[in-house]
Write a structure and sequence with these properties.
By secondary structure, the protein is α/β, with parallel strands linked by helices. It folds into 2 domains: 288 residues, Radical SAM ThiC family, central domain (TIM Barrel); 135 residues, no CATH class. Helix content is 40%, strand content 7%. The strands form 3 sheets. It has an 8-stranded parallel β-barrel, surrounded by 6 helices. It binds iron/sulfur cluster. The site of iron/sulfur cluster (SF4) has 8 residues, from helix 19. The site of iron/sulfur cluster has 8 residues, from helix 19.
Length: 594
């Protein structure tokens, strides 16, 4: 029978075992080492990738060779980019390949050399507890968690605790954005404890205790050197906000929302001069190179509301970020570029693909973006929708947004909520992009769910405690349904019975002799009706009665569970009663047992 539909070309398979009936990912083919590495198909009108890479922006005296590059006589490499250009796979690149699974050390090296991947690993931090990771399109999508004390909230101890929480809940990097308390001590404590790369926005410490107008070249360079020596792995530097961009901000609804961007704009207006970070770029690059601090070139003019997205100020600054990327590569520095912010859903693809073009594939690190502005208190959700689209269309790292965004400093639980929302976004994109193996855990969980194996279900869940608590709140028993639909309406249980019947592992359809569960007794209904009102002890007392009624004492399957047939019995039934899996008609003479 011909199909009444056509499938798009299939890019790759996100499952390493090809379970299930899914044809695979609709993304472009992986194109590892190319400009379309794990990319979404381009909608009409989208900017094509740049045909240049970091190889086109070599330092003076370097030249391309068939195997990579040749440096001037006596040159000693320092940064991951320099090693990669010379064809050397460092221990950090090997560790990245180990963690990524689908990449070899040579592929990591080649993508770092092309500037399409960064390994933020300050030489100093590598001497502590840092576990090297990579950010780039060829690797899994990464998540950053922001934290930091403000002048009115939090302390060093609280920030270190938040760091542990962020690591526990899946943050791949953490930014210390402290603007209050003992900035130096907090930064040192965080770098000293972190297994993940740490980023900062050094301008915050530059203006602490002094007026913005008093910021000068010496204080900028000293602060960068100091933080690099402390072991910070990447710096956000807002060098792309130029004097000539500022007139384009005038008609915005909300002006400049980046702290660094607004500070530098005020400085430029006061002094009537160009952004001093832009003017100091070559000196800044020298410091970054010495410690291998990765650039995260800041987008000081990112939009702060949907109405300001993709405007002249934002996109002109993005072009400057491309120019700064080229200059940093000429100094041997690793570069990623920061992006917006607040962007309507339909403009996200354009924003991602324009950056890919203007910045020659340097990894894009985006904040959200939020796709609507009218849900304060829920901005981890409004932004994680945009973040999923951003990761699908071109971002390599997603900066989380917590429910406290726009409202206050995130507390520990807000960090957890933000991390989980963004792990969901990053993972959803990785599966869509067809990164090999990225769907394996989903498939395992689906199998556990289909088997109604609750233990395995919880074990595979990203947050097992919450999954178990939600399940047990209604029904504290291992049975072949849950309280959402109940026994008779549980489609998974019915499907499982069909499968068991077809395979010969069950004597008859269960729906011909349904077993009404004791779990739907009056008491159980009471639990469901009073959800959220009962104390946990009360829920467990009532649920334990249910468990007892169903013969499911500790370690035993409840009496109402379908899978009561043992393996030997199943083999006999299979031999006696072979049925066509679709028509359920007998297949004739039973086949001999293997
Ligand atoms: S009762 Fe409903 S929600 Fe629960 S396992 Fe069965 S089908 Fe899924």
């Amino acid at each position: 029978m011909s199909r009444p539909y056509d499938l798009p070309p299939i890019g790759g398979d996100p499952s390493s075992r090809r379970h299930g009936t899914n044809p695979g990912s609709f993304a472009n083919r992986a194109d590892l080492g190319g400009p379309r590495s794990f990319s979404s198909p381009d909608s009409p009108g989208m900017p094509a990738p740049s045909d240049r890479t970091a190889f086109d922006f070599l330092p003076p005296g370097w030249r391309r060779t068939p195997g990579g590059c040749q440096a001037p006589e006596g040159f000693a490499p320092v940064t991951q980019l320099e090693y990669a250009r010379l064809g050397i796979a460092t221990p950090e690149m090997r560790r990245v390949a180990e963690r990524e699974g689908h990449l070899t050390p040579e592929q990591v090296r080649d993508d770092v050399a092309a500037g399409r991947m960064v390994i933020p690993a300050n030489k100093v931090h590598l001497g502590y507890r840092l576990d090297p990771m990579a950010i780039g399109r060829a690797s899994h999508t990464k998540v950053n968690a922001n934290m930091g004390a403000s002048p009115i909230s939090s302390s060093t101890e609280e920030e270190v605790e938040k760091l542990r929480f962020a690591e526990r809940w899946g943050a791949d990097t953490v930014m210390d954005l402290s603007t209050g308390g003992d900035l130096d001590a907090t930064r040192e404590a965080i770098v000293g404890s972190a297994r993940v790369p740490i980023g900062t926005v050094p301008i915050y410490s530059m203006i602490l205790g002094r007026k913005i107008e008093d910021l000068d070249e010496r204080s900028v360079l000293d602060a960068l050197e100091h933080q690099a020596r402390q072991g910070v792995d990447y710096f956000t530097i807002h060098a792309g906000v130029l004097r000539e961009h500022l007139p384009f901000v005038r008609d915005r609804l909300i002006g400049i929302v980046s702290r660094g961007g607004s500070i530098l704009a005020k400085w430029m207006l006061h002094h009537g001069r160009q952004n001093l970070m832009y003017d100091l770029w070559d000196e800044i690059c020298e410091i970054m190179r010495r410690y291998d601090v990765t650039f995260s070139i800041g987008d000081g003019l990112r939009p702060g509301g949907l109405a300001d997205a993709s405007d002249e100020a934002q996109l002109r600054e993005l072009a400057t970020l491309g120019e700064l990327t080229e200059r940093a590569w000429r100094h041997g520095c690793q570069v990623m570029v920061e992006g917006p912010g607040h962007v309507p859903f339909d403009q996200i693809e354009y924003n991602m693909k324009l950056q890919r073009r203007l910045c020659h594939g340097a990894p894009f690190y985006v904040l959200g973006p939020l796709v609507t502005d009218m849900f304060p208190g829920y901005d981890h959700i409004t932004s994680c929708i945009g973040a999923t689209a951003a990761a699908w269309h071109g971002a390599s790292m997603l900066c989380y947004v917590t429910p406290k965004e726009h409202l206050g400093l995130p507390k520990r639980d807000d960090v957890k909520q933000g991390c989980i929302a963004y792990r969901i976004a990053a993972h959803a994109a990785d599966v869509a992009l067809g990164i090999p193996g990225s769907r394996d855990r989903d498939d395992e969980l689906t199998k556990a769910r289909a088997a109604l194996n609750w233990e395995k279900h919880f074990e595979l869940a990203f947050d097992p405690d919450t999954a178990r608590a939600f399940h047990d709140e209604d029904l504290d028993v291992d049975t072949d349904f849950c309280a959402m639909c109940g026994h008779d309406w549980c489609s998974v249980r019915i499907s499982k019975e069909i499968a068991l019947f077809v395979s010969g592992k069950e004597e008859a359809y269960a729906w011909e002799r349904p077993r009404v569960s004791a779990a739907l007794t009056h008491e159980q209904r009471e639990i469901l009706e009073r959800r959220g009102v009962l104390a946990p002890e009360e829920i467990h007392r009532l649920a334990a009665k249910t468990r007892h009624a169903m013969g499911a004492e500790a370690g035993r399957m409840a009496a109402c569970h379908s899978e009561q047939t043992d393996a030997e019995e199943a083999r006999q039934l299979q031999a006696e009663q072979r049925l066509h899996p679709v028509t359920l008609e007998p297949l004739g003479e039973p086949a001999a047992l293997p």
